[in-house]
């Protein structure tokens, strides 16, 4: 169980995350939604301590993650894998080596420095690639893959950490609709099959609704919605997205002839 207790983060005058409290049972697939700047990334980054809280605590199975230091903090980060929008792969290395990087915390330092991967490590990495249907790409340079393939490599790298939580920060923001589905399917499958808790920041409410079993909505750093996707009604959407929600909750005005294409609403799939 992940427990977030009164978590806040201040940057100067701005409260990026403001007194957020959450309880997330193991194996949940939680979508964190809200407008740009609502505090979604900062919240996720505090869970694995890439950002330090100004106040509050993060507990995992009773351990105060916010108090961990040194070796214990490194262990926590290994159990709490991150997946980023920009994949963060080494483009010139092959796919298998990129995935093996996720094993670094599990092998002795001298072996990791020399990249002496054991047969077992290679087998684990290949099996993760198989789970993501990209084992055939193992020997290709990462920079030669499509965005969707690269994100699947990044998820495989997270998987070989054998994490208990995956924190995915806008994992589909730079993908087209088909790859968006492939990547979200992969995250959902991993969560379901391995009982891994997934917290996933998403701009697109359509995608969050389709894939997540719970939505957590932030507005100006505050938690303004927490519930199943079908409980997110018009009033909650307005509180989350303000005027932008007009597009989704009312009939869209027909565009004037010759006028520019309308802006995508936060309720539609962002490619
Ligand atoms: N390192 C930082 N220094 C100063 N301000 C920051 C920093 N990181 C985030 N902020 C501010 O905190 C607020 C929340 O940012 P955050 O990136 O968490 O929002 P977000 O919901 O993830 O936005 P987006 O969807 O655009 O990524 C924003 O106002 C942002 O400008």
UniProtKB/TrEMBL annotation:
<feature type="compositionally biased region" description="Low complexity">
    <location>
        <begin position="261"/>
        <end position="271"/>
    </location>
</feature>
<dbReference type="InterPro" id="IPR012693">
    <property type="entry name" value="ABC_transpr_PhnC"/>
</dbReference>
<dbReference type="InterPro" id="IPR003593">
    <property type="entry name" value="AAA+_ATPase"/>
</dbReference>
<dbReference type="InterPro" id="IPR027417">
    <property type="entry name" value="P-loop_NTPase"/>
</dbReference>
<protein>
    <submittedName>
        <fullName>Phosphonate ABC transporter ATP-binding protein</fullName>
    </submittedName>
</protein>
<dbReference type="InterPro" id="IPR003439">
    <property type="entry name" value="ABC_transporter-like_ATP-bd"/>
</dbReference>
<keyword id="KW-0472">Membrane</keyword>
<keyword id="KW-1278">Translocase</keyword>
<keyword id="KW-0813">Transport</keyword>
<dbReference type="Pfam" id="PF00005">
    <property type="entry name" value="ABC_tran"/>
</dbReference>
<keyword id="KW-1003">Cell membrane</keyword>
<feature type="domain" description="ABC transporter">
    <location>
        <begin position="2"/>
        <end position="245"/>
    </location>
</feature>
<feature type="region of interest" description="Disordered">
    <location>
        <begin position="248"/>
        <end position="271"/>
    </location>
</feature>
<keyword id="KW-0067">ATP-binding</keyword>
<dbReference type="InterPro" id="IPR050086">
    <property type="entry name" value="MetN_ABC_transporter-like"/>
</dbReference>
<keyword id="KW-0547">Nucleotide-binding</keyword>
<dbReference type="GO" id="GO:0005524">
    <property type="term" value="F:ATP binding"/>
</dbReference>
<dbReference type="InterPro" id="IPR017871">
    <property type="entry name" value="ABC_transporter-like_CS"/>
</dbReference>
